[in-house]
Specification:
The chain is mostly helical. Helix content is 69%, strand content 0%.
Length: 67
């Protein structure tokens, strides 16, 4: 099995930050336009989960399956 490195963790954390920023931009745009959709209500939760994901990476990558 391959070990997860600090670079892997930072890459995932950056990915999570970008997801969060994109979702927040979308929500703010919809609020400003007065067109808040159902999507926006789940977006903040999804962004939060993405951030938490960076801290939840396993100590090692699985040896089989997945990408």
């Amino acid at each position: 099995m391959n070990e997860v490195t600090s670079a892997d963790r930072e890459l995932f954390a950056e990915f999570a930050r970008r997801i969060e920023a994109a979702l927040k931009d979308r929500i703010e745009g919809e609020v400003a336009a007065g067109e808040l959709s159902d999507f926006a209500f789940g977006a903040e939760e999804l962004a939060s989960l993405a951030q938490e994901g960076a801290a939840l990476l396993p100590a090692r990558w699985p040896s089989e399956g997945g990408d």
